[in-house]
Amino acid sequence: QVELVESGGGLVQPGGSLTLSCVASISTLDRQNIGWFRQAPGKEREGVSCLAAGSGETVYGDSVKGRFTISRDSAPNTFSLQMNNLKPEDTAVYYCAITEPFSSVMNTCVLPSDEYPYDYDGQGTRVTVSS
């Protein structure tokens, strides 16, 4: 069983920035797709971003394009989500997620969601955007 732990959430004013981090309990994530999703109160899960294991292709939800950036960190079991120009509608609990390792090169990814859940996700970190 893989454990994921998110950090970096908090309260930020509109227009501000936050960086979320995710640490996995395994040594490397080089063969897994990685991603982030969020869930606001009373709403369904919304895929935020993903990064493909092989090509490094990134995908973003329409609501965060141009403002959020997903990346792998220097530590092989860690990845981040840089969030800029935050808006009140970004308020949610953010979860990191990973797939099982792929046996062959995976050059694309699908946003994690209720329809396409990844194999592991964390407990979440709360982000509140408010003045």
Account of the 3D structure:
- By secondary structure, the chain is an all-beta fold.
- It has no helices and 11 strands.
- It has strands at residues 4-7, 10-12, 18-24, 34-39, 46-51, 58-60, 68-72, 78-83, 92-98, 120-121, 125-129.
- The N and C termini lie far apart (40 Å).
Protein topology:
Elements: E1 4-7, E2 10-12, E3 18-24, E4 34-39, E5 46-51, E6 58-60, E7 68-72, E8 78-83, E9 92-98, E10 120-121, E11 125-129
Parallel strand pairs: 2-11
Antiparallel strand pairs: 1-3, 3-8, 4-5, 4-9, 5-6, 7-8, 9-10, 9-11
Question: What is the compact description of this entry?
Answer:
The chain has strands at residues 4-7, 10-12, 18-24, 34-39, 46-51, 58-60, 68-72, 78-83, 92-98, 120-121, 125-129. By secondary structure, it is mainly beta.
**Apparent shape:** globular
From the alpha-carbon coordinates, what is the Rg to the nearest angstrom? Answer: 14 Å
Count up the helices.
0
Low-confidence stretches: none
Order of helices and strands: EEEEEEEEEEE
* Mean pLDDT score: 95
The biggest beta sheet, please? 7 strands, mixed
- The proportion of residues forming helix, as a percent range, comes to under 10%
Structural class: mainly beta
Span between termini: 40 Å
| Percent strand | 35-45%
Number of strands: 11
Descriptive tags:
about 130 residues, 4-stranded antiparallel sheet, mainly beta, globular, 7-stranded mixed sheet
